[in-house]
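Dear colleague,

Thank you for sharing your sequence with our group. We've completed the structure prediction you requested, and as agreed, I am returning the results in plain text so they can be pasted directly into your records. Please verify that the sequence below matches your submission; if there's any discrepancy, let me know and we will rerun it promptly.
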Amino acid sequence: MALNIISNYAANLAHRNLTASDAAATRSLAKLSSGMRVVSARDDAASMAIGARLRATAEALKTAAVNVGQANSMLQIADGGMATIDDILVRMKTLAVQASSGNLSDTERGFLNDEFTQLRDEVNRISSSTNFNGIQLLGDGGDVSLNYAEFATGGAAEALSPANGFDRFAITDNNYWATDANDNGVTDNSFLVNLEKMGTTVILTISALIDGATDRTQSLDITDYGTGGSQVLSPGDGLTLDFDELGLSLDLNSNISGIIADTITLGSNGAGADGQATTQVIGFGNNVEMSADNGQKLADDISFQVGAGNTSNDRLSVSFQSVDSATLGTGATGSAESLEDLGTNAIATAANAQDAVEAVTRAIDDLQRARANVGTYQNRLDFAGQNLSTMIENIENARSTLLDLDVASEMTNFTSKQILVQSGIAMLAQAQQMPQNLLRLLQG
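Please find the predicted structure tokens below.
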């Protein structure tokens, strides 16, 4: 080979090999630092694709396992509620059997009847209030809502509209508005809204009527929210007033500013006979009634996602049965007399008490069928959870086989690449020294 000084073939060759060895060592280092055999698609595209799907499946199954745990918790709450109802039914049967005996007078039976009917109401309360995250488990949920029909055109509260600045009323204390002392429901509970101007001060007053009689009143000064006030609402702005004493909140919009400014003041030449400024607004005495509704309904069944796919096999549907007094006692066919059908004098007489014994006995059987149904699904969910755990374990192992790094093997490979890099650096240095030999010829 000719000796020349323009091109150093040996140095170029050493540099190319050094570059390749350094790249290989870098890839090996990346695998060692990540613990993954497949860092990028260039390492093994097929394994990366399969591993990605396996990882997604494993993570989805972990979430499904959480769903199974939540489902079991839900069913456990339902079973706990039914266990309490079972205790109540046992006590109700005891009372019915006692009232069936001829050694009691109607007076004593009256005492027993009072407890019996109260316990029946407690069955309804438990079935209505037992829920998981707002989902009813034992019966329809009771609630109180605003009768928005009153806001319709021509209704008593027509003036309480967004055009007049009133966006929304909301109940913040359901227990207060569900109060009913005269056993005729909550429809005679309502509230009155008055906007009053006294001199330069504008007062918004709400009065709560329970069973048709004024129970509480709360007033808020809203003068500053009017046009020209220090807290005037601009278009698009909103405001929530909390009438905490009444268990209500009120959302206002910017239209209220003009309404406040335009509120009529009746002076000495108006309706105020004593010359004092009195009240008048957009409809004095705006009455909004309450209405009872069933709140959340008891669903016929609830579907739980217990798999990673979107097929029927990836979901488990759990059915629920109502255990309120209108259902308990109807029997397997649903045609017999229920606890509710016993009426207010359920065990007030010996004959009624004897009928009640049979009804409560059927109710206990009905409740046990409902509990057995829940128990069946609990056992099924337990097996579903065990299967998920096994699947997750095996999928993680399969993914590990595809993607995880054999550290010992790769460390050996990395050591080899390191030696090649060090050797390449040494040889490149030697190749750089070769042109120095030509200098001796030139010097000679």
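Summary note from our side: The mean pLDDT is 83.

Kind regards,
the structure core
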